[in-house]
DNA sequence: GCCAATAGTATCAATTTGTATACTATTGAC
DNA sequence: GTCAATAGTATACAAATTGATACTATTGGC
């Protein structure tokens, strides 16, 4: 009771945490952001980096991130078409969060549990 | 291309980010965790702090967090019943992430957009 | 003309997630 | 006997998410 995080009790978006999670909490958004930390990526490039997501879902998450001003979508009028996604300045401010998410996952999520063979200590 | 985040490409859980988001990315999980940073809370106490969530969803998110070992559920055999939720040691390790989420939300999410009246600069 | 690649969109069905409402049990207050 | 409080559960329903597949347009290869 000493800390007093003072969350306004009568707002529809109760917490700043809720607001942030609304933006990056989507099933694939954090992962997209994570891959874009590494630099600009094309649509199919992202798709290949994320084996579990469908084209449709990837498109939708990308559009939502764009609508929230976190990523930039650059369309090149070429054939075959080329679309490049990159982080905006606002998206870049999420870097410490995404990296913290990655670090935590690496030390606490048993995501290597799918047969680590012998290469993981 | 220089950074090489080396995400294993052929695992079902592609990224540590994905794994972390699986645990705290649920619609209300981050918010629950955020309120528990402040100390032990009873069920209805949490419910009052989160106006947008239904009893059922709160119960479910709480059970999932418990199953993931992030929170502890202590039932007191009293009438009326009392159930207290608190962070486990593992849950405590999320503190920097939750706080980062809160800070980011405070500076980037316009969640005060619902009529700031005159009290917000 | 047919197939491939690009970056998607369209459609259908199935599953998951979320909402709304009512209900449980127990005890005390009224 | 009825209402309130506690911490939920049950049921019904709506919305979001997913998977599978087909389709768009354009150009080059064969």
Automatic annotation (TrEMBL), chains A, B:
HTH hxlR-type domain mapped to chain residues: 15-113
Tree of life domain: Bacteria
InterPro entries in the cross-refs: HTH_HxlR, WH-like_DNA-bd_sf, WH_DNA-bd_sf
Record keyword Transcription regulation present: yes
Keyword DNA-binding: yes
Keyword entries, A-Z: DNA-binding, Transcription, Transcription regulation
Any single Pfam family the record assigns to this protein: HxlR
GO molecular function: DNA binding
Protein name: HxlR family transcriptional regulator
Lineage summary: Bacteria, Pseudomonadati, Pseudomonadota, Alphaproteobacteria, Rhodospirillales
């Amino acid at each position: 009771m000493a800390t007093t995080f003072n969350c306004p009790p009568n707002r529809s978006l109760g917490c700043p945490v809720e607001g942030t999670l609304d933006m990056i909490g989507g099933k694939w958004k954090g992962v997209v952001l994570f891959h874009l930390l590494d630099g600009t990526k094309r649509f199919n490039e992202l798709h290949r980096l994320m084996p579990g997501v469908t084209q449709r879902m990837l498109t939708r998450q990308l559009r939502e991130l764009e609508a929230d001003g976190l990523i930039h979508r650059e369309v090149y009028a070429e054939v075959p078409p080329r679309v490049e996604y990159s982080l905006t300045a606002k998206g870049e401010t999420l870097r410490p969060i995404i990296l913290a998410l990655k670090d935590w996952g690496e030390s606490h999520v048993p995501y290597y549990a799918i047969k680590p063979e012998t290469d993981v200590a």
